[in-house]
Amino acid sequence: MAAGKCEAVSSADTAADSGTDPRLPALHDAVAQLRQELDGYAAPLADRRVAERELAVLDMITRPEVVARAGLPDATALRRALLLVVAAIGSVSALAPDVRRLREAVDLFAAPPTVRIPAGRTERN
């Protein structure tokens, strides 16, 4: 298991104990880590401000006081923010592990996948 996943599980366990949705601290931790790494990445990025803005929005909507007032973040809005961050950062390999961790945290908010079996087939076919 990757270090990022271990940290997310630990945060999730703590959140579950406190009654908080365990996906929120996982997302918050992923955002914080990527923000930190982006701050430390000295090379110029043409759309750095876009990534920073979207990460700030993600950070804000995962705060407990915002969640208490507005509810859980919308999966579509999370995916949009993720798409903008990825587009802004591009293929910077130094940031790839943290972008992956953010994607995994956003994916936690996706609806569970549905299994569709074509008519006339069974699960074993």
TL;DR of this structure?
The protein has 125 residues and is an all-alpha fold. It has helices at residues 3-18, 23-40, 48-61, 64-70, 75-89, 96-107. The chain is built from 6 helices and no strands.
Structure description:
There is one protein chain. The longest helix is centred in the N-terminal third of the chain and has 18 residues, at 23-40. α2 (23-40) packs antiparallel against α3. The protein is built from 6 helices and no strands. 66% of the residues lie in helices and 0% in strands. The chain has helices at residues 3-18, 23-40, 48-61, 64-70, 75-89, 96-107. It is an all-alpha fold.
Provide the descriptors you would attach to this structure in a database record.
single chain; about 120 residues; mainly alpha; globular
Strand content is under 5%
- Give the oligomer, counting copies of the same chain as homo and different chains as hetero: single chain
Q: What is the helix/strand order?
A: HHHHHH
C-alpha Rg, in Å? 17 Å
Q: Helical segment tally? A: 6
Major beta sheet summary: none
> Mean pLDDT score, rounded?
83
- Strands, count: 0
Name the structural class.
Answer: mainly alpha
Estimate the global geometry from the Cα principal axes.
globular
Helix content: 55-70%
Q: Termini, distance in Å?
A: 32 Å
State the low-pLDDT regions, or none: 1-17
Topology summary:
Layout: H1 3-18, H2 23-40, H3 48-61, H4 64-70, H5 75-89, H6 96-107
